[in-house]
Write a structure and sequence with these properties.
Largest sheet: 5 strands, mixed
Structural class: alpha+beta
Strand content: 35-45%
Shape: globular
Number of helices: 2
Length: 133
């Protein structure tokens, strides 16, 4: 049995996750970041991507948007714009968002390109977590 630590995931709407876990793999701004118990304290930015959580009994995936990850001796705290479990993802809405983002990218001016790219990334991440990509 691996050592555990507390993981809390908070979005502007609610506390999305609050459990003891063994491992968290997060989409850090500079690449994937693996966290286990007794990790050194750290604060980093997160990018849009897939968050993997391993508990004693299961592996959980979540789609997360930009945010921050803080590691302390007591817990790992993730503050994210959004965090969704596969069953919370509306696949049809994600497919429609992907289509709209691709259309905007095809005709985007410079100021709209970054927003369209982020929208596409969010949609693709949701589809991946929902098992549709």
């Amino acid at each position: 049995m691996a050592k555990t630590f507390r993981l809390q995931i908070v979005t502007p709407e609610k506390l999305e996750f609050d459990e003891d876990v063994e491992i968290v793999v997060a989409p850090g701004i500079e690449g994937e970041l693996g966290i286990m118990a007794d990790h050194l304290p750290l604060i980093t930015r997160l990018k849009i991507g897939v968050l993997k959580i391993l508990t004693e009994s299961e592996e959980i995936t979540m789609a997360v948007s930009e945010g921050y990850l803080e590691v302390t001796r007591e817990r790992v705290l993730i503050l994210a714009e959004a965090a969704e479990l596969p069953e919370e993802i509306n696949v049809q809405r994600a497919l429609e968002a992907k289509r709209r983002a691709e259309e905007r990218l095809a005709s985007a001016e410079k100021q709209d390109f970054a927003r369209a790219q982020a929208a596409l990334e969010r949609a693709m991440t949701r589809l991946k977590v929902a098992g549709r990509q």
